[in-house]
Amino acid sequence: MFEKGNMRAYCAIFLAVLLFGSMHERSFAHGNLSMEKDMCKLQVGKYMMHFTGYQPEATGSKEFCEDIPKTGSIVIALDAIDAELREMPIEVQIIQDAGEKGDAEAVTVLHLAPQRYPTGSISIEHQFDQPGKFVGLITAGEKGEHVSRFPFSVAISRPAYEKYLLILVVVLLGFALYLFSGRARRATEARANTSSNKLL
User: Fold this and answer.
1) Cα separation of 86 and 100, whole Å?
2) ∠106-108-109 over CA atoms, to 5°?
């Protein structure tokens, strides 16, 4: 059986892992693009779309969200979650990330003129021949008032340390909670012993 103090420590560590995992997930979300409940969602103003990417030639039917793992032919499917989007003209652009130069110096690599999609589904196919950083721009509405902007990369891997960052932080957090729990337990025992001595 676990002691009550240890059980509280384990529960605290478990909750901390869940909390940090959620924060970690959001911190790596790209702009308006994020992963929620195994579904990649794109926020367009106050509306939501489901984002799915494929690389048929490289990875078959395997889906990706956010960064594109390899160069080559890319198929992106956008599906309106909110029915209101089906009644609005939607424009899609992909531009090169110009960095500090801003969008004025960016090169447009794909452009779909504004149009309505009654089914709520938009299919995009493009050939990315070179690795690089890009920005996806989606605007919806008669005046383009609903906007989504999300940066992404093609065939650019993240630094290796990012893979282990979450594990390291969780271990350190768990160790700190364990020390705190032990200290609190010893303090409680000391108070109990003091009370017992006074009674004697």
Assistant:
1) 35
2) 130
Predicted confidence (pLDDT) at residue 84 exceeds the cutoff of 90: yes
What residues contact 17, with CB distance under 8 A and at least 6 apart?
A: 170, 173, 174
Q: What share of the chain is helix, strand, coil (3-state, %, to 5)?
A: 40, 35, 25
Q: Is the pLDDT of residue 71 over 50?
A: yes
Contact between 135 and 94 (Cβ < 8 Å): yes
**Inter-helix orientation angle 4-27/161-199, to 10°:** 150
CA angle 11, 166, 23 (to 5 degrees): 75
Tell me which DSSP letter residue 91 carries: E
Q: Does position 23 have pLDDT exceeding 50, yes or no?
A: no
139-154 confidence digits (pLDDT tens):
999 999 999 998 888 8
CA distance 68 to 189: 56
Whether this model's pTM surpasses 0.90: no
